[in-house]
Amino acid sequence: MGSPPPTPGRGHLLNASGCLDALAAPHVARQLDAFVTKTVTPLPREGNEPVRIAETDVGMLNSIGLANPGIEAFMADVLPRLGELDVPVWVSVGGFAARDYADLCDLLDGRDDVAAIELNVSCPNVAPPENEVAEIVAAARAATTKPLYAKLSPALPDIAAAAASAAAAGADGLSLVNTVRGLALDSELQPVLSTTTGGLSGPALRPVALAAVHAAYPVVDLPIVGMGGIETGRHALEFLAAGASACALGTVLFRDPEAPARVRAELESEAAELRFKTPLAARGAAHRRDGEEPLLAVA
Predict the structure, then answer these.
(1) 153 - beta bridge partners?
(2) What pTM was estimated for this model as a whole?
(3) Residue 257 belongs to what domain range?
(4) pLDDT given for residue 185 in this prediction
(5) Can you tell me whether residue 184 is helix, strand or coil?
């Protein structure tokens, strides 16, 4: 089994899959500690018909439908260019059955330009995988020695149980969380998106994502990438306190491409103000029992 990537003490910052085009904005990608690709599938996908994105007063809805060039074109054309960025690349993969994930992982296994693989088992804009999370993770684990991160949905009835199942099946880490299904209506009271509903991200998702990280942290001994509505260093610190060991920026990148550098600086400042030696020293602080001292000034 591959070892999970190290988490720098300064606070590991990534992008949420699909929220940054590193080839169009390489200077933004280089502000991150790792770049996560848009989800790639076995065959090319055109995605859903427009309209595919809608703004709301609490975040953003998207229904892209996993549009991507397919794994063969991705490996031939996209990965080599991403490798020139000199940033570790995590490849997000998706499919409709455990076999799809295993095949994708097998193809990526020998690539030196792939630092980790994120298993997207939670996209709300396509038909769900035919198999449970554990079966998908197990199939992927058998196909690769690369570090595997399982990206889970906040709509799961018991996300802690799903996290434990993913860990038992061989996941090296968790990505929490994907978007949650939402609806926006236009001035004529008709759905804005062509698919009627889409994945809601942004500020409204943050409390849901925090709860998921907080629930998963006590049941798995794995690194967790927390994501969902992170816009400031304080938000990132809260995810670390809930149990994350890294944070991913998503919707904020659409309106503030320079967010990684800003959030990193704010995170370090917020942690120092609360007397943590490093941002990562705050990990799990939200789990202390009543009467216990805060986890201050630890390595």
Answers:
(1) none
(2) 0.93
(3) 12-46+65-179+200-286
(4) 98
(5) coil
